[in-house]
Amino acid sequence: MHWIVLLLAGLLEVVWAVGLKYTEGFSKLAPSAVTLSAMAGSVILLGLALRALPLGTAYAVWTGIGTVGTVIWGIMMMNEPAGVARLVCIGMIVLGIAGLKLLSPH
């Protein structure tokens, strides 16, 4: 259950990271409200997951989900480059996340 909470926290991190682009420096109300809500939700869920998961593992997985999700959003929705080297680097992050999950005692 704590891993599912951590996954949701990571997905909310993607929402707020992408949302930052649309707030235009927090000058637009609706995107700013969504971004700030996602930030709060992400941190709250991370805190709940940390009740049972090791800090280093949970934090690395949380930021990894946010990083990979944000990059994928950028490639798919914002026409950011998807070169081979960039995709290999994303793959290494995914492997690192999977490794941390598999090696976690919980």
Determine the fraction of residues in helical runs and give it as a percent range. over 70%
Shape summary = flat
Question: Care to count the β-strands?
Answer: 0
Distance between the termini: 11 Å
Number of domains: 1
- The chain-level structural class is mainly alpha
Q: How do the SSEs run, as a string of H and E?
A: HHHH
Into which percentage range does the β-strand content fall? under 5%
Uncertain stretches of 5 or more adjacent residues: none
**Average residue pLDDT:** 95
Secondary structure tally, helices: 4
Radius of gyration over all CA atoms, rounded: 15 Å
The description of the largest β-sheet is: none
Features:
106 residues; mainly alpha
3D structure, described in words:
It is a single chain. The protein is an all-alpha fold and 106 residues long. It has one domain (2-103). Helices cover 81% and strands 0% of the residues. 25% of the residues are buried. The mean pLDDT is 95.
A few lines on this structure:
One of its GO terms (molecular function) is transmembrane transporter activity. It is found in: Cell membrane. Helices cover 81% and strands 0% of the residues.
Topology:
Elements: H1 2-23, H2 29-49, H3 55-77, H4 84-103
